[in-house]
Every structure is written in structure tokens, then in C-alpha cells.
Amino acid sequence: MFVLVNLKTYPCDPVAIAEAVSDVNERTDARLAVAPQAAHLERVAETGAETWGQHVDPIEHGSNTGHTLAESVADAGAVGTLINHSERREKLADIDGAIRAADRADLETVVCANNPAQIGAAAALEPDAVAVEPPELIGTGTPVSQADPDIVEDAVAAAETVADDVSVLCGAGISTGDDVVAAGELGTEGVLLASGVAKADDPTAALEDLVAPL
Ligand SMILES: O=C(CO)COP(=O)(O)O
């Protein structure tokens, strides 16, 4: 299972969490990665943790003030990027352009979406993966894999209908190993989570708990 930790803009220490990700990753068969803010990418990547961006824009080098260029995210040490999010909503055309920009920079892509219909639309754009995250469960500590298993199974089916090689992750409220196991049983290949690690008093213990049953 893939465990991708999105640090959002939480007031956590991104380097300390990345060190915990790197450390726990060496002791599990699961794949762990961390997505810090753009300004922290380089310092996080230097820890050796698998590092992801939270966003890239559908642009090339040029006159794009304030934008995030996929090549710069890769240069900073990231190997992948999130695209779209309930907290960073993009138009379909921009999601498509961001996937192309990420492909150009050899960044792996996970497109987040709110529900199975959006997952189908996102999967049709052929990212590497999609992540279904019901907005009403984000940050609640109530795991989508247990609170709303139908949405996860429907998302897996929606993605398979349009593209059988796009992986599906799920997120929202994931914080324990049981949540990750439940996500796997519903047909996903991983989880995307934030507060369960970024707000934990002991991020290493939180990560160890997440991967313990895997
Ligand atoms: O939005 C999320 C990850 O992108 C999920 O956030 P929580 O894990 O805090 O619910």
C-alpha cells in the first residue's frame, strides 16, 4: 500500500516529519511519501524521504508570475505531485494541463477528487493515480474507508471503467492501520492523509501505527 502524507499548510515541522517518513519507510513493505508546501520541498527531499509536491500549474517556463512550474518541483527533489484538491479546486482543463506538465517533468501524478463521478473524469485524463476524498470527512478523524465504504468502491469502479491502469487511493479521516487495511479491502492501492500525521504529537508513532498491519 502507498501511504502519502499531505502536510497542507499545517504548522508542523516538515523536516522532522520527513525524517520520520524516511525512517519508518525503511522498516515496512509499504511505500511512504510526504507532500510538503512548495517552499519546503528541497529541505524535505534532502532527508531522503520520498517527496511530493502539493500542486503544479498547467504552464511551461515563461511569463507566469506566482505559478508553480513542474520542472522546478522536480528540481527541488520531488518525484510526484498532487493535482487538484477539495482545498485547491481546479477546472478540468487545468487538471489536464497540470498532468501534462507533470509528465513533461517526469513527476508521478495523483489527482484528487470529491466523489466517484469526478474520479471517472479525472481517470480519463490518465494520471498515474486518483484519490477520492469526500470533503465532509476531511480533517474529521472519521475514516472514509469505514464511514463511507460505498464511495470508495464506487470510485474504484468509476476509475476502472475509463482506465484500467490508473491506481485509486482514498483519503479523509485516515489515521490508523485498520483504516489503511479497510482501504485496501475496498480495492484501493493506498491512502492519502494529512491531520493523522501532521497534527500528531509523535509523527513516528502515527506512521508506525498506519503501516503496522501491512
Ligand atoms: O485532505 C486530505 C489529504 O489530502 C485528508 O486530510 P485528513 O487526513 O486530515 O482528513
UniProtKB/TrEMBL annotation:
Gene Ontology MF terms: triose-phosphate isomerase activity
UniProt keyword list: Cytoplasm, Gluconeogenesis, Glycolysis, Isomerase
Enzyme class (EC, first level): isomerase
GO biological process: gluconeogenesis; glycolytic process
Subcellular location: Cytoplasm
Principal subcellular localization: cytoplasm
GO CC terms in record: cytoplasm
Catalytic activity: D-glyceraldehyde 3-phosphate = dihydroxyacetone phosphate
Binding site for substrate: N6, L7, K8, I138, G173, A194, S195
HAMAP family, per database record: TIM_A
Protein name per UniProt: Triosephosphate isomerase
Organism listed in the record: Salinadaptatus halalkaliphilus
